[in-house]
User: Fold this.
Amino acid sequence: MGRLAFIAILPALAQTPAYFWYEQIPALARGGQTVKLRVRADGVTRFVLEPTDGSGHRDFANVSTGLFEVEFPAPAYEPRHLNITDIGVARSYSSTAATGAIRIAIRYAENLPPVRLTPLAADAQRSDYIINIHSKAFYDGMVANGMHVFAAEPLARRMYAFLPDDFDFLNLIVGNVTNIANRYHGVIRNSVSGLGISNTLNTGASWGSARRLLGFNMYPNISFYDLSEGGSNHEIGHQWISAINAGPFAIGRPHWPISSMAAGLMGFSDPFNLQGLGFPCRFTPQADGSIVVAPGSPISNRFGDFDLYLMGLLDPSEIRDPQYIITDTAKLQAATTSSCVGAGTLTASQYQRVTIQDLISAAGGERQPNAAASQKDFRAVNLVVSRDGLLSAEEMAYFEQMARRGEERNIIPSSVGRPGVHIPWFTATRERSTLSTKISSLPMPVISTGGVVNAASFSGAALGAGAVASIFGSGLAVSTASASAVPLPTALGGVRVLVNGRAAPLFYVSSGQINFQLPDGLSTRQVVNGDPAGFASVRVERDGMASNYGYVDIRPSGAGIITYADNFAVAVKTDNSVIGPSNPAAPGDAVTVYWVGTSALTEAVTAGAPAPLDRLIRVNGTTTVSLGGQSQPVSFSGLTPGGVGLFQTNLTLTNQLPAGDLGLQLNVNGALSNVAKLSVRAR
Assistant:
């Protein structure tokens, strides 16, 4: 069963309504554009939109029985939201009282990457990551059979008319209306023993897959579709984790019991509807045999040891025993309603200790194939079914962006316009498994994991507006090109770099590296409690293709000392000779150290333009220098005249410095640079 996420039905307050779907018109909005929402529900006499921005409540019009509409201007697009924003709730009422609410998310058209579209038939098209099939019959059947009943097999068979049987998982996304229903997983074939399910299960033929397809993930709710999100990983996990129906594990089926195992991605089963609920708690054994349960799971949004064992990614010998299952009825009730705090301290009679051998016994024997021989690399195909015709290029780009996020290998910002981060499959499996979501074989530009860095320090910690940065990856450009004039161009060698959708000035492009300057005006709000407000998204575009996103934390200040050879600072004497082991500086020398980074300035300079030659622009604030652990006096810190994004700090070496290759570090308004070496000779 699915795992609940942020857009869900709130508990009913009086008569329980039946929510079916809501629809956004247009399908992708732009900030300020008038958007119409349609909601289909029974048992409701009135809907009221309650925006989170405080712009005022709006009543829906009841246009026919069970169908409600409202219009409102879309909130301004914010790049950090990555094209989807939670805007508030639609609250329902019966004739006498409030009955519940639906969270509403709006999808945006701004800052979408380009896509390569390939027509397949009158009812089908594909991009590099998405296949789209038009099927009004699918939507008609959904209405006739119940709004949350989806006939997926015919669509899969149609899909395989165009694609090879090369995929392990099918993600099927309802592309036009947002159903008020959760994601869910279905097993199609299984040859693994030791999972509590038959290892001869095979219904692939009915799906059009003769050999490979393992399972499907249904996405009735468009807002849940982001393959980097924990719920998506949770659904794939159900391919192996759902069927143990023996011993102390049976009560949790198709998830885990309320336990330390439930502290990971798979969670525990809601006793009312078997949906997966999170239990992000830490279990700490005490000397007296009790266990303290407190907030702060060490495996939150990641798979736990028992999960990874069943998935074939962890050998039993690697399992950290034991795990703990809460067995006391009162504690279970308290934990269900109040999570970790409700569980509190467990006495020895209130929990059961289980080991990996207990799990193996309950599952009918050890997993085969075991972790040494099991499949580790998986492919998913993403099928979006549309109602009124094939999707537009913008709609395809929206879904492609969300599909591609599943391939990321780093923690990345949430896509739902709420504070938080997502932990994609590779990281959630502790780097033991990969997930490819691409359906084409054509090469595309790829930004490496952590591949957007300060161009001098090669760290992501010294980036902000105006900073010179480097992108590392593959296929970023077809050929090598360098800017030959200033202001710097925003297109070079057929390549652009987009930062929050804005074209950035380019110094240099090649297949494996791009040097560019971050644009002006980027938000420097700090990341607090996971809030991604200070993140910027970076992508490369070439030849009508887009890379994956790189994400950088935008800082108000930061410095990266430019280095050469064995980490020696690029620094010069007054004669402009470069300081190094063969040309050391001496105590009392005036020295200029060059760096790139970001800072408030006494005068703004447009990104891509050189600093003026007729006046000095200084760092607005304080720059201090430490050399060999000793503070050095600074006479100037600011932009280098005539340079683009290039800073310099002028200092005079004190007489007390020892000889040697000394550690040099800048502090710009509290932000520390990398440590580089500066050669100093004896006085």
User: Anything to note?
Assistant: Confidence is low (pLDDT under 50) at residues 1-15, 526-533. The chain is about 10% helix and 35% strand.
